[in-house]
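Batch manifest, entry 17 of 40.
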Amino acid sequence: MTETKFMFDTPPTLEEVQDFLGGYAEMLEAKFFNTTVQVLINEEGKIHKLPENHRASNLVGFDIVGNVMVLAGSARWLE
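Output type: structure tokens
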């Protein structure tokens, strides 16, 4: 089973992200209710054959696997 965590107030640390995702993070951007959010996924999720995350896949419009962290508002990482 996969999880999708939404964060709005405080940006997570890299260690928190990697622990939640179970590996290295890759950042994607997606539109969510007219707001651009950062979507953090496990960079090697498909290599490790992690299960599909249907909730995150619906958000971005293509298949995403493993746990996903969505950063919005003040929780976004600097670009």
